[in-house]
Design brief:
Radius of gyration: 26 Å
Number of helices: 18
Number of strands: 14
Strand content: 5-15%
Length: about 425
């Protein structure tokens, strides 16, 4: 990158660094970090924003969308997110520099779909393989990093689960790092968006893909007389999926995604079993923490069921994760009819009333201070007060509670106490 291409603040920073002490360091917005004397092996933080970097293509894409939608030029063109595909960092058996073994996680094929019970087992555990961007391997994902999250884990998970149930997003995930012993790095992660934008909404529907045989269920297996919970991997793409959809990108898709890639257990069955057991054991350990500290009591009913099944294999009522009664808890119809969801909405209404009431008090206190008379006129405090009072009347209505249906509501355990 030519020096003149940097912004003025960046140029100034680099000049000061060049003229400063030689043992100091500087961060350049156009270069990788230097780790142990060489560029970092984890450079994805410098990804280019193509919507800014390629304005012509961005404009053409927007115009094409407008033409397809028959949207006038004056109407905003919205591009809502209608696909959420987390990536998985997987690894084969490995070891740390001190010789400590790292168990395998590379049991997924390029693209998996999980129904919500299995998906949230993974979200709760947040297990990751060895990566240049992590200090180790194991259960160290975003939901387990307390210092970076001000909310309790259960509050976060409750809201996340409600959001997934309401939106109906399919729980798809892509593989990174390894598939079995095949090294793929981030190639699959980068390929999936290209694939997804070439599929219609109907083709991305899990029910359609399962019905057409493009996704196959991964079943539990028995190995050395013990049950292996492979069904927690959900569904995975088949050769039919590769032929029908990957052919939109590759000339010979089946040569890229062969049997070994689609069925990692065919590469090394013992490694596959150990990988699934590694995941199941990590899930049990993570769930036991919620039971031990008592926070499971604040989990919503479907989340409680998942936690007990992760930790103990069944709910206190003796139901497994496959029981119809448990699966029903994760449907939109069950959610909307549940008392716990209605309590989330009622909590949201009370919190909104409390928020607006606090604003009204603050405005009145400000306006009552004689020294603020000029500012009251300048800031239009009287008009703001009327607006706040109108909003309080609105959020206090029963109809407002009805309008909240379909939202995540608010977490009852985090409801503030009036006056505190």
């Amino acid at each position: 990158v030519q020096f003149s291409k940097f912004t003025e603040p960046m140029q100034r920073c680099l000049r000061e660094a060049a003229n400063g002490p030689k043992d100091d360091y500087v961060v350049s917005s156009a270069h990788f970090r230097i780790v142990n004397g060489k560029p970092t092996a984890n450079p994805r933080y410098l990804q280019v924003r193509t919507d800014f970097g390629n304005l012509r293509a961005t404009h053409i894409a927007e115009v094409a969308a407008r033409l397809r939608r028959r949207a006038p030029a004056g109407m905003p063109a919205h591009f809502p997110v209608n696909g959420v595909l987390p990536g998985r960092r997987n690894n084969p058996p490995d070891h740390f520099p001190d010789g400590t073994p790292i168990r395998p996680l590379a049991v997924y094929n390029p693209l998996h779909y999980q129904e919500l019970p299995e998906l949230f087992m993974d979200f709760i555990t947040s297990v990751t393989g060895r990566s240049p961007s992590t200090t180790g391997a194991g259960s160290e994902g975003s939901l387990t990093k307390g210092p970076f999250n001000a909310l309790t884990y259960v509050a976060d998970l409750n809201a996340t689960l409600v959001g997934w149930i309401l939106t109906g997003y399919g729980g798809f995930s892509s593989a990174a790092g390894y598939i079995g012993r095949c090294k793929v790095d981030h190639d699959i992660s980068l390929l999936v968006p290209e694939l997804w934008c070439r599929m219609s909404e109907k083709e991305r529907d899990p029910a359609f893909l399962i019905e057409q045989g493009y996704l196959e269920r991964v079943d539990d297996i028995e190995f050395s007389g013990k049950l292996v919970h492979a069904s927690r991997l959900g569904y995975r793409i088949t050769a039919g999926f590769v032929h029908h959809f990957m052919g939109r990108i590759f000339n010979s898709a089946s040569e890229v995604f062969d049997e070994a890639m689609l069925r990692p257990e065919s590469q090394d069955f013992a490694m596959y079993v150990d990988g699934v057991n590694n995941i199941a054991e990590a899930q049990a350990k993570a769930a036991e923490g919620y039971i031990a500290d008592g926070s499971i009591k604040d989990a919503c009913p479907p989340l409680q069921a998942v936690l007990y099944c992760m930790a103990r294999g069944k709910t206190p009522d003796g139901l497994t994760i496959h029981a119809p009664e448990v699966r029903k808890l994760f449907t939109r119809e069950s959610l909307l009819a549940s008392s716990w969801y209605k309590e989330r909405l009622a909590t949201k209404q009370r919190m909104d009333m409390m928020r607006v009431s606090r604003a009204i008090r603050s405005l009145k206190e400000f306006a009552a201070e004689p020294a603020n008379a000029a500012d009251v006129r300048r800031l239009g405090i009287d008009a703001r007060l009327k607006q706040a009072e109108a909003e309080l009347a609105e959020v206090s209505k029963a109809s407002y509670l009805e309008r909240l249906v379909g939202t995540v509501g608010a977490e009852p355990t985090l409801e503030p106490i009036e006056g505190q």
